[in-house]
Amino acid sequence: MTQPSRPQDGRAALASFVTNRLGRTNARPASTEIKAPPANESAQDFEKLTGYRELRLQRSAADLIGLGNPFFRVHETRAGANTRIEGQTYSNYSSYDYLGLNGHPAVSGAARKAIEAFGTSASASRIVAGERPGHLKLERALAAHYRTDACVVLVSGHATNVTAIGAILEAPDVIFHDALIHNSVVTGAQLSGAQRRSFAHNDPAALEKLLEATRHEHRRALIVIEGLYSMDGDAPDLAAFVELKRRYDCWLMVDDAHGLGVLGRTGAGLHEHCGVEAGDVDIWMGTLSKTLSSCGGYICGPSALIEYLKCTAGGFVYSVGMSPPLAAAAEAALTVMQAEPERVERLRRNGNQFLALAKKHGLNTGSSLGLAVIPIIVGDSLKAVTLSDRLFKRGINVQPIIHPAVPERSSRLRFFMTSEHTPEQIAQTVATVAEELSALETGATLIEQLMARRGA
Ligand SMILES: Cc1ncc(COP(=O)(O)O)c(C=O)c1O
């Protein structure tokens, strides 16, 4: 096993380890030259994959300073406001179950009924294997929610963005997206071959400058923003983006993955939060994996768009139809969400309480609105991973988010709130975070600990 020879090597290796585990992109590291292997060696060895040896080295560095691996933990129960891992109970802030609908009797009951009637699989693409009533019911319910003509659901939220954007745009076109947009949007843009231009986060003025300078160079243009941003927990000024898309003749797409069930008085989404008509947005995208406690993604929009995607988008045409119990669960969850706005209100109260207490303790919560997503920004990857590790030892499960998922200096812990957290639990969590962060900042530095362990 290779060990780092200097503390700063250990630190760099560890920072790079956590970076790798959370934020790997498809991009090859810039410094890696692709060389032919020596004549007596084969390149067909998985251990020689770019970054693999580095990954092992980084894991060794983490082991060296006694940090557990915060990723891929096995939960032994339904992970909501609480969870159980290796027999221990934890306060849990790592699930997207914003309204506590995962395991709700109506949601699980709908899934069970669908299994009894249709089994667990749609078996093939819907073009080939045909529809199940649950697909159509879910699509009708989502289209009604956004007041659009139609909707199509796909088996993955990520694949929904990739395939839809890949199918809508072509090389003469352009996509303008928020700098913090989800990876699936960027990947879809790359697939499409369209030009990709990003503008500063939540900054319509920056977008306007870009539009002014470049819109005329392209045929079609798509602007993509999110509802509630998944790293920062803030939201855009939708009206400003609607105004720009009209003025510069663009389509506007909102990825409301984290907005549905969260934003607006009834959790309808970004349009309700901003007091804008849903119909002012051309394409509503979302995922079924968050509030709707299922799995998959959706596009809601004009019938021509939906018909086009159903007949041409690779991720729909060449991929299996949604599993019947997952479609039924999502539809039931949407019904409960709409019937019980008190869940949305509870989530808001919990998020607001967390945010207010965090601010009182002097924690940096960035631009979070205090709803479903609240970051505690600590400033570097190693600190974020160590804080997460210390909190885990004190019964709190929360994930570190580090470079390149976010810039290194804004490495953070990201807390997902649910309507089911209790006020006592939240107060205790924030107090523990403040205590551990303060201990981390005033105690022996991590480098000193590393040196002490190595007898340096
Ligand atoms: C904004 C956004 N869009 C799309 C996705 C992909 O959704 P899924 O995880 O359901 O595939 C995510 C995932 O977290 C997301 O945060």
Automatic annotation (TrEMBL):
Region of interest (Disordered), residue spans: 20-42
All residue ranges annotated as the Aminotransferase class I/classII large domain in the record: 93-430
Keyword Transmembrane: no
Keywords assigned: Pyridoxal phosphate, Transferase
Pfam families named in the record: Aminotran_1_2
Superkingdom field: Bacteria
Gene3D superfamilies with a match to the protein in the record: Aspartate Aminotransferase, domain 1 (3.90.1150.10), Type I PLP-dependent aspartate aminotransferase-like (Major domain) (3.40.640.10)
InterPro entries, per database record: Aminotransferase_I/II_large, AON_synthase_class-II, PyrdxlP-dep_Trfase, PyrdxlP-dep_Trfase_major, PyrdxlP-dep_Trfase_small
Name of the protein: 8-amino-7-oxononanoate synthase
Protein source organism: Methylorubrum aminovorans
Gene: bioF_3
